[in-house]
Amino acid sequence: MLQVTETTERSTSTPATVDSFKDEFLRQLRYEQGVELGTASRDDLFQALARTVRNYMVDNWLTTVETQKAAGSKVVAYLSAEYLMGPQLDNALLSTGLTDVADTALSSLGLSLDDIRATEVEPGLGNGGLGRLAACFIDSLATKNIPAIGYGIRYEYGIFRQTFVDGRQVEQPDSWLSNGTPWEIPHTDQAVEVAFGGHTEQAIDQTGRSVTRWVPGETVLAVPYNYMVPGYGTANVNTLRLWSAKATNAFNLHIFNSGDYESAVRAQTVAENISKVLYPEDSTPQGKELRLKQQYFFVAASIKDFLRTLPEGFDLKKLPERIVFQLNDTHPVIGVPELMRILVDERGLAWEDAWDITRRSFNYTCHTLLPEALEVWSVDLLGRLLPRHLEIIYRINEQFLAGIRATYPGDELRVRRMSIIQEQPERAVRMAFLATVGSTKVNGVAALHSDLLRDKVLDDFSAYWPDKFTNVTNGITPRRFVQLSNPSLANLIDDTIGTGWLNDLERLKELEPYAEDASFRKAFREVKQANKDRFVSLLAQRDGIELSSDALFDVMVKRLHEYKRQMLKLLHVVTIYDRVLKGEIKAADLTPRVVVFGAKAAPGYKMAKEIIFLINSVAKVVNNAPELEGRLRVAFPANYNVTLAEKLIPAADLSEQISLAGKEASGTGNMKFALNGALTIGTLDGANVEIHELVGGENFFLFGMTEPEVQSLSDAGYHPTSFYEGNASLRGAIDLISSGIFSGGDRTAFEFVISDLLYKDRFMVLADYQTYIEAQERVEVAYADQESWSRKAILNVARTGFFTSDRSIQDYLDRIWHAPAFPVTK
Ligand code: 8GP
Predict the structure, then answer these.
(1) Domain 478-803: which CATH number of 2.60.120.260, 3.40.50.2000, 3.30.470.20, 3.30.1490.20
(2) Which among 373, 457, 541, 726 could disulfide-bond with 368, CB atoms 3.0 to 4.6 Å apart, if both were Cys?
(3) Any idea which residues bear N6-(pyridoxal phosphate)lysine here (predicted)?
């Protein structure tokens, strides 16, 4: 089982003994689940256990909430449309220090903690990196004793469950709430109303001023569900508050009684759809409208929620001293005009004062560089859904552009470029621009990304406001991604440098000298081997995929996107097969390798789905090719999620971070792999640049063009066909795919993917192919010398402590939030 070593620093709200824990567990089982121990289902056991652990956090949580409120300390409100939390039980056990107690208590009842924890269904309330980052950040905020609250949406259905049918992705709804979740506490009494639609009108207030009033067309209720976010090694327990939509009037009894049942509940359905699904397909106008509704829904509820905690008569000019709203990408940006509306229309502040307060209360984190990923909302839609907000956005823009005109007289081209409102191809609000104008600080998520943001994507804005732009390199929580996911490594580290590194991760540097210690290297290899064995048995049981653990584990897990270049990895696989078939290399000379892919494609993203089909088709043939027996296997377990990541990442030897330079904002998987002792094969993109610098070039397999090289190739005119024609090995791989060998003889099966590669290849897969293959050859050579490989792997662990999300949060505090820590003492 996962054995978690106790450290001395953590606190428990209520000292628990094995007996008291057992009693509480049995009480939960009997009185909350309503079952006897002997007849309890696995889910009953899980629910009872989770609630038992949860209850040990409640005292500290209530104390935290009360003392922070009484002190009136500055609060960080993290606004995020996604939180990809992963399973909660182990984290709750770790932070309460109850792992061993629970294990012993359950064993004494003839139960296994391992079995019970395996039944937990993770809340998949996020798509990928952005959502997982939010989850890491709230963990670090709590650990660092920062008064903070995470605000988001309680989607009834999270990210879809991916299945493969004949190699193709088929999405199933993720009904993570079907058994209920023990981790949430609803507060129906604290619901707030959120309005939509209607119109605005002019009125005269009591002081004789002309004011604008929004007369909404409909309202829905936002019901808060609280989740505890325990810090590690502290009594501090923060809150994650997710909003669920409810109709203001459940249904119309009059219509119901008339027999028109569908109409009677229509309003309810429409309202409750708002929090029904994470990121509904937004290729339809209805989908777009729902998405914007979701954004406004949670942001409006959150701002209202915070404002009602202020004492009677609070001077709103002091708001920025009490709160800082962090915008996790553009999804919550509608909060800027919302706060303006509240301050001006509802609280009667002058526009200038309101603007000063608003700008000082918001900051914006951008997570992308792809222009198509920058959100815009059509003026038509926004005006229909939020008419008053549109007026406010126009006024903000007018005032902003007046400043631009004053600074750059006569430069109308610049004015058009910088306008919050775009005119073409349709009149729309550029949310990233609104975020930039409405915030004090704008940050990118890795050094390179922040530079490109400043110098390319938002260059006009950084020229105008040079001090507004800053960088905060992402990080990951080592509690989940080292201690919980890799307990054997955590134990080895404890035994080597002592405890205390989990919230002081730079201490991993103390491991450096042990890279030269043969017995430590051996122990380190044993940990990796045990993790591979664990993953292999999990995969056999979870997916029926049989693998040998005696191989190099080469892993590429992330969302499926062309810029991330899963195709490049696949071309490597196909190249090996092609060369073996042609007798250019002998399979017996190859290092046995297991290639693991994990990726979900957005449901409407055709190319990504075709690439999934191609990977599965190649895997099927390669895995059955007698020529490659024992040398190359491709595994693509469906439904990659946090639960699987926690088992897979510790088992990896090689981490694939192969995006085209200048496209991946940061990446956070890259950090998790390095911290778990995998070596990176990667381009100089996102946070790879910093990983490469920290671990050293000799401990990283670097390849590919740099961002300026990408730019010049693109400027010179990129012709992928010339790479195809000029490289026999690449031609061999592509021709093999086109030959029909992976599609039962059908030569057209992958045409959609291949013709795009040959004639467009927007992300320059073919241009980076050769250096990638060469880097993989260096991997083969390096892996053959296990002592040297272990040395490199250990140095990766020792030198990547920088990537703890505790450091990211400290950077946000120093550069952006300036909110003091407020430790809660028990
Ligand atoms: C991701 C970026 O792609 C990744 O480089 C970065 O590490 C991560 O954010 C955290 O900063 N972006 C997203 O996950 C993203 O844009 N998701 C969209 C679906 C909203």
Answers:
(1) 3.40.50.2000
(2) 373
(3) 672
Topology of the domain comprising 72-86+122-474+811-817: Rossmann fold (3.40.50)
Q: What is the pLDDT of residues 557-573, one digit of tens each?
A: 999 999 999 999 999 99
pTM, two decimal places = 0.96
Cα–ligand 1 centroid distance for 370 (angstroms): 11
Mutate to test the pocket of ligand 1, among 368, 565, 655 (most ligand atoms within 8 A of CB): 368
For the segment 271-287, what is each residue's pLDDT rounded down to a tens digit? 899 999 998 666 777 88
Instruction: Give pLDDT tens digits for 235-246.
Output: 999 999 999 999
Task: Check pocket membership of 431 for ligand 1, CB cut-off 6 A.
Answer: no
One fold for both 72-86+122-474+811-817 and 478-803? yes
Mean pLDDT calculated for residue range 610-627: 98
Per-residue pLDDT, averaged over 134-152, amounts to: 98
**Alpha-carbon distances of 171 from 164, 559, 604, 638, 728, rounded to whole Å:** 9, 14, 11, 11, 38
ipTM greater than 0.95? yes
Contacts of 640 (CB under 8 A, 6+ apart): 162, 557, 598, 599, 600
Q: Where are the domains of the chain?
A: 1-71+93-120, 72-86+122-474+811-817, 478-803
DSSP secondary structure string for all residues of 601-657: --TT-HHHHHHHHHHHHHHHHHHH-GGGTTTEEEE--SS--HHHHHHHGGG-SEEEE
Task: Measure the CA–CA gap between 205 and 313, rounded to whole angstroms.
Answer: 20
Task: Supply the mean pLDDT for the chain.
Answer: 95
